[in-house]
Amino acid sequence: MWFLVVLMTMTPNDITPMWVLSTETFADQNTCTEFAVENQYMLFQKAIEAHEYKIKPTLITCVSPEGMEQILRESLEYGNNADDAKGMEKSL
Fold it and tell me: Minimal CA–CA distance to 58: which of 4, 10, 1?
């Protein structure tokens, strides 16, 4: 199972937002890539809409289940670190 992911332009705080196609997954990387090539404009438009027209897309990629797990882990780690920093600000 492969996931189609649109990476957006990096934000000033070094975060790269993304949009994941949630309506379908793909049996293999080739099928995912073919879909991405054939539908790139629609996928970019959906990603732009999801980010309220504030961030531009930079590329479409296909990600394996292991890759998605790593992305989720890193997102959670970043979120935990951000929460720690917010807590520190409140206590100062």
Answer: 10
Q: Which of 5, 17, 19 is nearest to 47 (CA)?
A: 19
Euclidean distance between CA atoms 61 and 46, whole angstroms = 15
pTM (2 d.p.): 0.79
The two tokens of residue 5 are: 């992911």
pLDDT tens readout for residues 21-70 = 999 999 999 999 999 999 999 999 999 999 999 999 999 999 999 999 99
Separation between Cα atoms, residue 48 and residue 51, nearest integer Å? 5
Provide φ and ψ at 67, rounded to 5°.
-65, -40
